[in-house]
Amino acid sequence: MTIYAGTIVDTPGDPFDGDPADALAEAGALLVRDGVICARGSFAALRTEYPDEPVIQLPGGMLVPGFVDTHVHFPQIRAIGGLGMPLLDWLERCALPEESKLADQVYAREVASEFLDGLLASGTTSALVFGSHFAAAMDELFAAAEQRGLNITSGLVLSDRILRPDLLQSPQAALADSTDLIDRWHDRGRLRYAVTPRFSLSASNEMLDVCAQLLDRGVWFTSHVNENLAEVAAVAGLFPGVRHYLDTYGQHGLVTKRSVFAHNVHPSDAELAMLAEHGASVSHCPTSNCALGSGLFPLRRHVERGVGIALGSDVGAGAGLFIPKEALQAYFIQHLLGPGGMNLTPVHLLYLATRAGARALSLDDRVGDFSVGKDFDAVWLRPAAGSTLAVNLKHASGTTDALARVFSLATPADVAGVWIRGVARQGPSLSQAAR
Ligand SMILES: [Zn+2]
What we know:
Blueprint: E1 2-10, E2 25-33, E3 36-41, H1 43-49, E4 55-65, E5 67-73, H2 87-100, H3 105-121, E6 124-130, H4 135-148, E7 151-155, E8 157-158, H5 171-185, E9 191-197, H6 205-215, E10 220-225, H7 229-238, H8 245-250, E11 259-263, H9 269-278, E12 281-284, H10 286-291, H11 299-305, E13 308-311, H12 323-336, H13 346-353, H14 355-360, E14 378-381, H15 388-394, H16 399-409, E15 415-420, E16 423-426
Parallel strand pairs: 1-4, 5-6, 6-7, 7-9, 8-9, 9-10, 10-11, 11-12, 12-13
Antiparallel strand pairs: 1-2, 2-3, 4-14, 14-15, 15-16
The chain binds zinc ion.
């Protein structure tokens, strides 16, 4: 067993339900056995009760739960920074040419490593990852994620129309390749499979039927919806009979409590009601929405309708893998919306970066906060001495104020340690423990 001691902050509650301050919790120490938290409290109390256990002291900064990214494209890690285009142009000119390169398995292996190491360096320990159009590239991602112990849900991206031809497959091939990947990777350790049509724009009804067949295997589902007005109009033209964009998935039984839809910047009330009714979640991707000019996310309408929301970095359209940056951008967007926006407190931002994502992925029984019984997936944010964040933390009036400074100023350079199920993946290890 190991005692971790420091400023430990999490959100076991839900700040969107009641007083946000009530959702926040603090501790001085956690006792971890075999990667699982088995006690929390003050350092003095845990030290007295467990005098012989090694202690890892985490002086300065704060320890928070590992971040959860609910929408991020692994084949796009080398394609960040394509500014100046709306969604459909950006896909054609920036994202999809890069995604085609993953047909080469050696290339895909390098990209998978760069991507997963990037997640770790950003403190992200769980993610719903938008996969590749190539099955061999998915093998590379899953194998590399397993090596690193990351909590990864992902799947082969399916498309049978409109995109460049090398990214298309037939529904029959999609079924065969996906079935094989599910057999080999779903529910293997911390890995899970997600059926992933790119979006209904590039998936025929026949392909969406294949998705429904695959979803019956008890796996997950993710796709895009209502990201950009030109995309919404194009989808309406392709599915003349449907009530709205979400219904292109709903008609095939793909809107479920195991479904996570990215963006939803332009939802109708009927779509919000359908998401809530089926318990599906939405991944809000703030820097991507701003970079592509997609729009300002109507967070209040989601919350008021009872739709679960979490954060996604949406790399490569998003501006990097660091989830606190997405939380800050979410705050900015809500502020810009004026009376129609929601006033997000620092507690909301921590919740959105951690537990909200765990809930959207139904991983909240395992990760997302530091309650006893959960996996010790943790990030130690400790700024370099003399940095502007260090100066600000020194002058913070309390935990909530300190969180505000962290979300305003922290970058991946402040990630001083990452633990996955109690194993140090970066930063201080047991050998440095102060007994
Ligand atoms: Zn996306």
